[in-house]
Amino acid sequence: MSPRTCCLSGTLTPFLYPAFYQSSLASAARRCCLARRFPLQSRCNSTTTESSKSYVNTDSSRLDPTADDYSLTPFADRCILTVEAGGGGHGCVSFLREKYIEEGPANGGDGGSGGNVYIQAVRGETSLHKLARRRLIKAGRGRNGQGKVKGGERGADILITVPIGTIVREIQRVDPIAALEEEHRKTEMNGEEGPGEEGKASYNKTRWLVYPGTIPSELNRMTFPKLPPPRRSHLAALEPQAPMWLDLDKHMETPLLIAAGAMGGLGNPHFMTPYNSRPKMATRGDEGLKISVQLELKILADLGLVGLPNAGKSTLLRALSNSRARVGNWAFTTLQPNVGTVVLDNHKGRPLVTSRRRNGELRENFTVADVPGLIEDAHLDKGLGLGFLRHIERAAVLAFVVDLSAGDAVDAVKLLWREVSEYETMRGKELNAETERRTVTYQPANMKASPDLDDSPILDPSPEPLPFLSSTPISSKPWFVVATKADLPDTQANYKALEQYLDAVKAGAQPHPSKRKHAWKRNPQAVPVSAIKAEGVEVIPQLVMDLLEE
Ligand SMILES: Nc1nc2c(ncn2[C@@H]2O[C@H](COP(=O)(O)OP(=O)(O)OP(=O)(O)O)[C@@H](O)[C@H]2O)c(=O)[nH]1
Ligand SMILES: [Mg+2]
Q1: What is the distance between the alpha carbons of residues 49 and 322, in angstroms, rounded to a whole number?
Q2: pLDDT at residue 435 is higher than 80
Q3: ipTM of the complex as predicted
Q4: Ligand 1 site-directed mutation target among 69, 70, 327, most atoms within 8 Å of CB
Q5: Where is the Obg domain (predicted)?
Q6: What domain range is 102 assigned to?
């Protein structure tokens, strides 16, 4: 018997189903030892403190709470946001004035550059609701330049903090500098072609600032130099390639720049010539880059609970962690995902489960996401399905929660897998469409740029690989079944049938419930539990750790 099977059949079935209890005396003795050293309470819900009382008694009211005993935190997992980098301050037109220097030279300072917009995924953020309220986030504008060659102050930067697991997709971008560059390129070309009034340009009030009090007739007589070429902040090189598509799936130590502030205008000393030491013009600061982005949070939990409504997912989450998710005896009690943390090591003695992360770090906890119940055709957005199916897409391990007292458990597992699998197909199609959208530039046949191009769509020549979202197909994730409400009478036969079905899936006698080729079926197991009495749940942490290591 493998250690996992031993652990499973050993610790819980004696309470629930004595008939299935087959483990050896030796392993029972070892478990007794373990139970004495780590009482149930400290083992699977180590955030609770009163270790002297029995687990069941202490938590009976917590696990079977009244309908109004829950805590609800504001939550949003999607939002559309416009971020705007700060505009540059204007250059200054001023002249030196001192005693005995009546008409001093130009000494206007340059405008300050605008503030940058940064994004950072941090631990501790769990929702996008604060950003959803804001809609427009604008970095500070640079201050205008001042006399005595004083440059303007830089605009204030903005840092957008998002939860880990946020995907940022660009919807629209307004780049004023790109427009200016285009304009500049055109004027350069025209300037080269046309006969030369070199170095002269007319007054453009969107680009030039003139000395205060300049009257229109004077303005007409003034000779404006050629507009300087548009400038970008050197920080713009650090911006992600447009169109932006970021998958912020790790805690970020440093923020990522997404929109660099615009440059400030030039002060009047820039326009001094040997013939004109007192230019009466300066340039205006540039407008900031504006990007509309869609933020989508896909919770990154280690374990995702998938189940029909009223199956007991929230009760299970309460039994495993210190969560206060709402529990009620009706469908759709849970309307938004809840994430609970199961503490494996509370640093008060030896941890029950010792597991290391991929980077060798010792795991102190793991997270469990409880999402609203799925119903048939959830993938077609029935019930609350589609909005929340994406939260299980990124869970490392899936736990299918089935209610043993509510009909055939095997049918429930098959139905849940069907929905998850349909969702996976849909996501695959979406991802392909997105990839195509980003690689192929459609050009109608009658608008061919050059006659030697054939009719095929033009591939984007960009050598940069596209940033794909790294995601494992849902069907290839390790999974197990939590058979809840095992305390209710006449559930044994249902559980037995479920166990037999999973054995058949493992042996290959039955297809994987998702009907997919490369689905994970190495060792799907059933865990009978009574979440309401916290019986049987103590094996789940070890099981999850084993599956996480796969
Ligand atoms: N007898 C028994 N009742 C349970 C058990 N687990 C949950 N229940 C009850 O089943 C009902 C539904 O539990 P919830 O945890 O709210 O179920 P859910 O799956 O989160 O439901 P939705 O959020 O609506 O999808 C509640 O009345 C629980 O008290 C169990 O192990 N045994
Ligand atoms: Mg619930």
Answers
A1: 11
A2: no
A3: 0.98
A4: 327
A5: 73-300
A6: 78-297
